[in-house]
Amino acid sequence: MLFSAKNRSVVFLLLLAVLSLVILSYNVVHAPETGIVRKLVLELASPVEMVVHGISAGLHDTWSRYLFLVGLGDENRRLHRQDDLLKQRLIEYQEAYMEAARLRGLLDLKRRLVMPTVAAEIIGSSRASIFRTLLINKGTSDGIFPGMAVVSNAGVVGRITDASWDVSRVLLMIDENSNVDALVQGSRAQGILQGGGSKACLLKYVSMAEDVRPGMAVVTSGMGGFFPKGLLLGVVVRVSKKEGGLFQTVEVAPAVDFKKIEEVLVFREYRRNMQ
Amino acid sequence: MLFLLYIPLSFFLAVLQSIIPDLLFFGGLGFEISLVLLVYLGLNLDPVRGGLLSITLGFLVDDMSGAPTGLYMFLYVLLFGLTVLTARIFQSGKPVFIMACTLACALFESVLIIAFYAYIPGIRIGHLMHSMFVPQAVLLAVSAPIFFKCFRWLEGKAHAWDT
After folding, report:
1. CA B105, CA B127: separation in Å to the nearest integer?
2. pTM score, two decimals?
3. What is the value of ipTM here, to two decimals?
4. What structural domains and CATH numbers belong to chain A?
């Protein structure tokens, strides 16, 4: 025998480590389309994510109402029960009104955009790890593929990184792995907008000579191949220039509130056109 | 074949850990329960079955976290190997040992992730070490003995059902 029984397990583990390194290298260098197994896992996970997402929204709602009611007397409780019924109805109407307003905004945006888009709902989010992503309820069966741009009526959300048949994962523009070719609307200064995680995004490689001031809008430049030109990314919040440096540091607050986002649009054709 | 039951458990944990932190910590911290399972496998399973499970678990975590396929596969195989080695040297099931093992694994994993991203141009996540990775590792280590009890209970139930 070439290896003893004890060494055989070590060799086996080494082989597994080499295999995973090869897979990692291939994926980092080639960035292929989402594989069939990965698609299957995403599909299987989406119902669980949807259920937990629903439960979390319900718990949040219940908790808010509990806090609202705590400390009231018996008499107030009776009145509040009646009040709650009316409030519940009002909340339902408000929710329907807000949903209609959001959808109207999305529809307006869809009309403004020349390129074909697909509307999708957010069904899950992961903002805790180093990868800040969202799950949407549309996939390859709706014409969505990795690399496609995702926007809301407030601005750029991110781009698709994985797409299974009915579910896709969106890498948010605030993720530190996200880099978007951008320009400052007022001065036309160009740079790369990198996500800042929980902090503000950074507009990198902006020359010291460029006139960039807080309050200026930052939009997509149309270069880089993923996003069409002119989509709002955010607003400049701080500019600092170090003496002797080549570039200035430009901090940008994202236009989209990622905690409140519920519906998005995916540019279906743009990535293909670029290819 | 009882060890195959770890695959659905891994899937469940991979999904759960992508959602739970958002509920508990409002996106501020992660909670990698799959790493505790990995340490459990390292301390209780033989290298061949444990190795296969760790690479599967790594794939599921890659998929659920949105990491490039292979990153967590490699990390988990490596950490599993180190845990097996540790288990052979120390052979202890005490909570303190479990906590220390989990803490070491979580910190080592964070260092490797930071090192991996240091090689990718434009991405620097070193600053997350003290603000995210260390608190996550401590939280995971403190809760690891409870999860070990849960895994043992599940294993016992599955074994009873099998026999």
Report:
1. 19
2. 0.65
3. 0.82
4. 39-172+261-274 (2.40.10.340), 179-254 (2.40.10.350)
